[in-house]
Design goal:
It is a single chain. This protein is mainly α. The chain has one domain. Helix content is about 70%, strand content about 0%. The chain contains 17 helices and two strands. A two-stranded antiparallel sheet has the order 1-2. The longest helix is centred in the N-terminal third of the chain and has 28 residues.
Length: about 375
């Protein structure tokens, strides 16, 4: 009956889980993710050795840790991508609740590792950054609330999601972590737009965000210092941005050669926030364009598959996850070439960091789950039948 009404293939109930997963997954996006992870390990071999030497560790200490966390992330990604949308919704809500509580506890039990922002819980052998895990859970939570508000006699989901947004942004601003706060704001705005928000309201919210940024500039030395550094036409050659910009210029089209780069010896965050500078210096513009193309493939293919999705929750949640994944990559690379102020944001699957790579695995796992081909009518079927 489903086949007659919606024109889609019936479910083969007896089909094993793995073959069904492989048949329905977006293989192009999955391949792009695996290639990004491989590039991350390749760049880690170049960027993290100097840091390990300075810290008196084995030369491949950070690469080995990245390989371990990356393997965990890929296993989590595959496991999450096998879940149906209902399970993704439950996982997102539970994950958001746990990360939100962790953010509340961060000012009391967190540490800044000497970077001036209390963003991590330190456990000695490892550290956790709650904001990384908050993002995918928040996107799913907001999508669920907004989708529920569209139902007859549904809850005021849009108002509740806005209240959660304000609370999360304030908690992130306290750290301070204005980069993650901006990313959360962007993701909420994208989902609200997909849910059918009027342009007038979006313009008002944009004005409120602008006013909040002005207040932050006037009251936060951390925020003002980064904005002033970005607006300053002169680049301090001894600053992180100065070293990164010079490395990118030196790399040219083909790079200076594998292992010949110098920026990894001068930048303390060459293996995390400025990993793209290492890629540009040693491998040139070719590798940078490949990395951009891989992120673009994941985002664009996901959005095209979601355009055919009937279920409002799936469409909103998937769009939010795809956009924050792509925009985080864009912010990281934009900072390195001085198109954006310094944010302290990692490059998903490429930068070193346990929290970052595992959270990225959860994000794309949810995205792959929501973009899987399912035996349901697409939104285009409804439009054609309505003619």
């Amino acid at each position: 009956m489903t086949e007659m009404v919606y024109g889609s293939n019936p479910v083969r109930v007896s089909e094993p889980v793995l073959p069904r997963w492989w048949r329905t997954i977006d293989k192009w996006s999955l391949t792009a993710i695996m290639v990004l992870f491989g590039i991350g390990l390749l760049l880690g071999l170049a960027a993290s050795v100097p840091l390990a030497s300075r810290n008196g560790l084995n030369d491949f200490y950070y690469v080995q840790r990245q390989a371990f966390f990356g393997t965990v992330a890929l296993l989590v990604m595959v496991g999450v991508s096998m879940m149906p949308p209902t399970m993704i919704r439950r996982l997102g809500v539970i994950g958001f609740a746990g990360a939100f509580v962790a953010l509340l506890l961060l000012p009391f039990f967190g540490t800044d590792f000497g970077k001036g922002a209390v963003r991590w819980f330190s456990f000695g052998f490892a550290s956790v950054q709650p904001s990384e895990f908050l993002k995918p859970g928040f996107m799913v939570m907001v999508a669920w609330l907004m989708a529920s508000s569209q139902e007859v006699n549904g809850p005021p989901g849009k108002a509740v999601s806005f209240g959660l947004l304000v609370a999360v942004v304030l908690l992130l601003a306290i750290q301070p972590d204005f980069g993650q706060a901006a990313l959360i704001l962007f993701g909420w705005g994208v989902i609200y737009f997909v849910a059918g928000a009027p342009m007038t309201l979006i313009a008002i919210i944009t004005g409120i965000v602008g006013a909040a940024a002005t207040i932050a500039y006037e009251t936060s030395e951390h925020f003002a210092r980064r904005i002033d550094g970005f607006l300053n036409p002169e680049i301090d050659p001894r600053s992180q941005i100065g070293y990164a910009t010079n490395a990118i210029q030196q790399g040219g089209f083909f790079g200076v050669g594998v292992g010949e780069g110098q920026v990894k010896w001068t930048l303390p965050d060459a293996h995390t926030d400025f990993i793209i500078a290492v890629a540009a210096e040693e491998y040139g513009l070719i590798l940078v364009l490949l990395i951009i193309a891989l992120y673009g493939t994941i985002v664009v293919r996901s959005l095209f598959r979601l355009m055919r999705e009937r279920d409002p929750f799936t469409r909103m949640a998937g769009t939010g996850l795809a956009c924050i994944f792509g925009v985080q990559a864009m912010i990281n690379m934009g900072v390195a070439v001085r198109l954006l102020p310094a944010k302290g944001m990692t490059l998903p699957f490429v930068s070193y960091g346990g929290s970052s790579v595992i959270a990225a695995g959860i994000t794309v796992g949810m995205l792959l789950a929501l973009t899987r081909t399912r035996p349901q009518g697409e939104i285009g079927d409804i439009l054609r039948r309505g003619r």
